[in-house]
Design goal:
With 319 residues, this protein is an alpha+beta fold. The chain is built from nine helices and nine strands.
Length: 319
């Protein structure tokens, strides 16, 4: 279970006393997720998600993440809304950790996304981009070129132990991306991690986008490229053109891609594949054998990268 910090009854009662959401009826740990400790909180006033932020989420970034949720929710984006305390604050401390309460959204994450799911995801991302365009705060993408170089250095010694030749493959790809990475594309707030497990659906209707803890200011088309990796590859590693077409058309129906954005998609998709290859590789190498949450396979992302390296244009993704 992805609950790293336990909460005592007395400290929970004191924590909830700062909110106007009634007394606690139940508190249950949530198994999904690997970054933070999440609880399903039922009170006299409704259902909520209580999150304790663990070491990977910097406390100083929380005003950006939670302020963005406030901003997006006010503009109709289907995302959780932070619950403000009586004093207006949305971040407090609980059990020695920064903590926040958010509204609960109905739905489940799709295990095997259909083309319809992909279309909904593309449209939701475009709505997010449009709604966040007037969000004033900015946050640099810590997992772009400079961050990839640091991760490549941190994993280099052990990479060939995961797969022979992986160290050189990463070094070659990083050098290519550093030389060719696009500039001047439209940018603003992006989610940067909108995988299926960070969305909620009822049937094939999207009911929520969650986990904004990699949100940052970067190119909109890079976010689209992340989604091509996250949603459109099958378990056997093949790219599903029907899903790619649905995702891109869903996005374009809300926010059409400019010509330079479409042209950059293959390169951006390579960068997105390398980003997740490196973060998964780091977690794989540094995994705790006693941990209950198994790290994701980095070699899946290497397969994505190999596909993108042979793409000739956005048409190969269904655009």
């Amino acid at each position: 279970m992805a609950v790293y910090t336990e909460i005592g009854d007395d400290e929970l009662e004191a924590f909830l006393g700062a909110y106007d959401i009634g007394g606690v009826l139940s508190l249950k740990g949530i198994a999904e997720g690997v970054e933070n400790s999440n609880y399903f909180l039922q009170t006299e006033r409704g259902r909520f998600i209580l999150t304790l932020y663990e070491k990977r989420v910097a406390e100083g970034d929380l005003p950006f993440f939670l302020g963005l949720l406030d901003h997006l929710a006010a503009r109709g984006v289907t995302c959780p809304s932070p619950v403000h305390g009586r004093d207006g604050a949305i971040v407090r401390r609980l059990a020695g950790r920064p903590a926040a309460i958010q509204t609960f959204l109905d739905g489940v994450s799709p295990k095997r996304p259909s083309a319809a799911h992909c279309g909904e995801a593309g449209a939701a991302m475009a709505r997010l981009h449009r709604a966040g365009a007037d969000f004033a705060p900015t946050r640099a993408n810590a997992l772009s070129l400079a961050g990839w170089a640091k991760l490549a250095a941190a994993t280099a010694a052990a990479a060939d132990g995961v797969q022979q030749g992986l160290r050189q493959a990463i070094a070659d790809e990083l050098a290519h991306l550093q030389a060719a990475w696009p500039k001047g594309l439209p940018e603003g707030v992006i989610h940067a991690d909108m995988f299926p497990d960070n969305t909620l659906f009822v049937g094939e209707r999207l009911t929520g986008v969650i986990d904004f803890y990699f949100a940052c200011t970067d190119m909109y088309a890079y976010d689209v490229a992340v989604n091509l990796n996250a949603w459109c590859f099958e378990p056997d590693g093949s790219f599903n053109l029907t899903k790619g077409r649905a995702l891109l058309h869903g996005y374009a129906a809300v926010r059409p891609l400019a010509a330079n954005e479409s042209a950059a998609l293959p390169l951006l998709a390579r960068g997105a594949a390398l980003r997740f290859l490196l973060t998964r590789l780091y977690d794989w190498i540094n995994r705790d054998p006693a941990a209950l949450v198994r790290p994701k396979d980095p070699l899946q992302c290497l397969g994505w990268l190999r596909f993108h390296q042979h793409v000739e244009g956005a048409g190969d993704y269904g655009l």
